[in-house]
Amino acid sequence: MDVSQRIEKTLESAVSKAGGTSCPPKLAECLKYAVFPGGARVRPRLSLAVAQACGDGTPKLADAAAASIELLHCASLVHDDLPCFDDADVRRGKPSLHKAFGEPLAVLTGDALIVLAFETLGRHAVHAPDRLAPLIGVVSQAVGGPSGICAGQAWECEPSVPLDEYHRAKTGSLFAAATVAGALAAGAEPSGWRRLGECLGEAFQVADDICDHVADPDVLGKPRNQDIANDRPNAVQRLGLEGAGQSLQALLDEAIESIPDCEGAQQLRTVIAIQSKPFMPKGFTRHAA
Q1: Mean pLDDT of 120-128
Q2: Mean pLDDT score of the chain
Q3: d(CA 132, CA 188)
Q4: What's the pTM value of the predicted model, to 2 decimals?
């Protein structure tokens, strides 16, 4: 079973259990709508890539860790689109959840996905129960305060926002959790894996900022120039288009260099190099020139 199949199978099982016969039908439908069809599944793919580089000794737990991170990401998208935040009409090329089902169900769906992420971790911890506590700690820190995705969203409510800290919390925290959780789930020493996730998370956010400035909305799957419309920090506004591109490339280079020595280090470097190519938005070179 390849990585994509592992991710989708685990997500399908989790969402199916959460939306079982006793679940209110509309909530069950919303859970599926929020998770499927997914985007590139960048975060869970990264988590499994790290687990495989570390030997992938407990694949079921690695699958659960990867799925839990993707469920939290999906929850953050549902909440991010709400009228109280971005008030976005479109997500992943279809109506955002609150547009399709209403704001109350969108709030509840995001909440349910957060709980489901931890339930999924707990259900599969039987494969390595001693790793559950550190996994919960890593994932929890990536979601809450002081520097998780909730903190990243909260920075948007402040009058002054430090761009680097905003990016680390809003995006980098969940990427860092993906790499650390992948190592933990495989039974490897996790401490050396955080910087890889932080760099890739910041790179992903810079790329998203560039896309918000130059990408075709049909390709992007959401409207362009949302950062300007919502007065949100943006790397292009702070660094210029060329400077943002240079920052993106530097972060990707540092990410590859940061990979710790392990059995699958060289293969992982190749995987990261290939999978990070789409980070550079189409048409960026032309626009930057």
Answers
A1: 93
A2: 90
A3: 14
A4: 0.90
